[in-house]
């Protein structure tokens, strides 16, 4: 079983049971430079393998339009599906808006419950 871990100033990433876990650090603000670093580090960790992605966005406090556009396009590279886990309030309304406007190229759903988010990803493993 492969268990790889990567860390930068914005997030932590690890692969476990053929799912890539991605957790933003607390109080992160994402601009285009941050988005490019995050995607680059994730792709490096994946070593050319596509994975379903469990993305915990609860640490994000803000992001700009350029970052959201970049994540919607390049953020889908080497992903089979994405479950976004957020708080009930702000991040969910921001994220559902993002999904409507940016239309990611892989199946993507928003959850507040981590176990439901994992169940969604299991069919893509």
What does this structure look like?
Helix 1 (32-46) runs parallel beside helix 2 (65-73). The chain has helices at 32-46, 65-73, 90-102, 114-122, and strands at 5-7, 11-16, 19-24, 28-30, 51-56, 60-63, 79-85, 108-111. It starts with a strand and ends with a helix. The model has no long low-confidence stretch (mean pLDDT 87). With 125 residues, the chain is of the alpha/beta class. Helix 3 (90-102) links the parallel strand 7 and strand 8. The longest helix is centred in the first third of the chain and has 15 residues, at 32-46. The protein contains four helices and eight strands, in the order E-E-E-E-H-E-E-H-E-H-E-H. It has a single domain, classed as 3-Layer(aba) Sandwich (Rossmann fold). It has a six-stranded mixed beta sheet, with helices on both faces. A two-stranded parallel sheet has the order 4-6. InterPro entries: DUF7793. Residues 13-124 form the DUF7793 domain.
Question: What is the topology?
Answer:
Blueprint: E1 5-7, E2 11-16, E3 19-24, E4 28-30, H1 32-46, E5 51-56, E6 60-63, H2 65-73, E7 79-85, H3 90-102, E8 108-111, H4 114-122
Parallel strand pairs: 3-5, 4-6, 5-7, 7-8
Antiparallel strand pairs: 1-2, 2-3
Helix pairs in contact: 1-2
Pfam families: DUF7793 (PF25056)
Protein name: DUF7793 domain-containing protein
Domain DUF7793: 13-124
- The CATH class assignment is Alpha Beta
Give me the CATH fold name. Answer: Rossmann fold
The SSE string, one letter per element, is: EEEEHEEHEHEH
Overall residue-averaged pLDDT value: 87
- Estimate what percentage of residues fall within beta strands: 25-35%
Number of self-contained structural domains = 1
Number of helices: 4
